[in-house]
Design brief:
Strand content: 25-35%
Distance between the termini: 109 Å
Number of helices: 7
Largest sheet: 7 strands, mixed, barrel
Amino acid sequence: MSKCNKHILLFCISSFCLILALCCFLKGSITDLHAAADLSIMPGNSSLYLKKYDLTIKGQDKDGITYFFLPSYADAEIISQRTSEYKVYCMDDSLLSKPAYGVVQEVTVDPGDGNRIPWKISFMHSANLYTANIELNDADVYSIDHDMYTPSSLSVYSPYGKMEYTSDSVLIKGRGNTTWDAVKQPYEIKLPDTFPLCGMDSSSKWVLLANFFDDTKILNKMAMDLSDSIGMEYAIQSDWIDLYINGEYRGNYLLCKEPGISKGRLRINDGFLVEKDVRGSVENDPNSFMSGDDLFRIKDPLPISENEKVEISFYVKSIDTKLHNMSSSEQFTDINSYSFTRRFMIDEFFNNPDSMQMSCYFYKHEGVLYAGPCWDYDLSCGKSLNGMDYYDHSKSILDDLSKDSLDWDSLLMQNHPYKADYDALFTEACPILLDSIQNRVDTYAEKISPSVEMDRALWQNDEIPVRFYASTSNKYRFIKYYLYERLKLLASECDYGSDLPAMDLSDNTIHTVSFKTESDLYSIEVSDGSLLSEAELPPYDKTRYSGWMYIREQKPFSPYLPVYEDISLELRPLQKDE
C-alpha cells in the first residue's frame, strides 16, 4: 500500500471514530435530556417536570422553603433548566444540576437582571409505597365536601411505576369527625367498579386515613394487622400510599376499607353492624339508638326501616341486660367469646383511649354478637388526651373507664369462663405480640420512613407533637418501649407462667436535661433510655408553680417517658383555678 493510501485510510478511520464518538455523545446528551427533571421557576410558581414519567411535581412552599415531593417510582438524577424563566445557582455559582435529596439547599435565583435572590429549596423522595394521583374536575382540594361526593379521576402507581389502576369516574368526599377538623384531612373514594387496589381484596369504596394524630403513622395498621395475626375473624386490610391531589403532595395516607357489610369486607348472614359512639344523638341521627346511657349507631345495612331499627336496638339492649345480670360462673353464649377476648386484648396492648367509647364495632352473625373489627388506634400508645396521662403504661384501660364508656369488658372480665378464655388467649398470642415489638415496628418504620419524612416536612408546624421526641427514629423506639411495658402488664393480668425476654432499647449515649427557672438555667446528664421520677427533678415553690413541663411541647412532665434525646423543662405557673 502506498504512503498516500495509508494516509487516506488513517484519515477515514479517524473520521469514522470521531463521527462515532460524536453520535455517542449526542445520544448520551439526548438520553440525559429525556431522563432529566426540567425545573421551571417563575414568579410565585415552580414545578419539576419528569419527562420519563410524564409527571409534573408542583413546588410547595412551607415556612420559607419550596419542597418538591417525588413519589417512590419517580427519580430525578439530573436537573435541567431549559424552560425556566429564572436560573437557579448553587452557592459555588454553578448552575443547579443535581437534586440533593432530604436536605434544604440554599441557592440563589437569577431573574435575568443579575441580581441574585436567595431561595431555599428541598427535594424529597419517597420509597416503597404506592402512589395515588387524584385530579379534581374544576375544583381544588379545599372544595372537597364532607357529606357530598366530588367528581374526580384517579390513577394508582406501584412503587416501581406500573400504572395499576386508572379511572376518570371516581368520586371523593371527606370523612371522619375529629379527624375531619384537622388540617390534614381524611377522605373516602368511590370507584365505578370494584377493584383490588394495592393488592388488597376488591372493593368499590375505599378510605384514606390521614393518621394526623399519629406522627409515627404505624399505629392503625399495626393494630389492624395484629388483630388478624391473633385470629380475629374480621380484620381490616390496609396499606400506605403517597397521596397527590391536583399535582400537589398531600402526605402519607393509609388506604383501607371502612368497616361494613359487603364482598371484600364483612360477610355475615342475617345480621348487622353497629358502632358504639359518644358523638351525636338519636334526635339528630335516625340510625342511632340508646341502650341505657350508651349511644349506638347502625352502620350496615343502610338504609333501614323503622321496624328493622327497633329489632336491632332490642337485640343490643337484650345483650346489655343479660351481661349485667350474668353470674360470675355462667358460660355466656350470646356473644362470641373468641372475638371479644381478641378485640379487648388489642385495646389493652395499645392502651386505646377510645376503647368502648367510640369507633368500637359489634356485629351480629348467625344469632351471636361478635366484637370487631378493630378500628381507629391513632390516639393509642401514649397519647395524652383530655388531661389524662396515657403515657402511664402501668394501668389497665378498665381502670380509667369514663362515664361514656360501655362497661361490657369490665363485666366480662369478672366472669370466670370468659377470663379463662382470655388468659388462654394471652398464652397463645404472647409470642405474636412480642414479635410485633421486636420486628414489626422496625419493618413498618423501614418501609414508610422516607414517606413519613415527606409528610412531616409538609405538615411539620401543623402536626400535633404526640410523641415528645424530635427524631422519627426515637418516636419508633418509644412505641417499642411502650408496647413492651404493656405486654408486661398483660402478662401480669393473665398470670402468664413464663418470663418475658429482656428488651434493652438504649443506644448507650448520654443526654442533657435542662431546667429553666426565673433566675437560673442548669442541667444534668442522664443515660439514654433513663426514666426520671418527680423526686429527681429540682424542687420548686408549689405556691407559685404547678410543676415542670416540657418547653417544646408545653405539656406536663411525665415520669413514663424515657429520655432518648436532650430535653428542656421549665416551671409552669399556677393558674387561677388551680
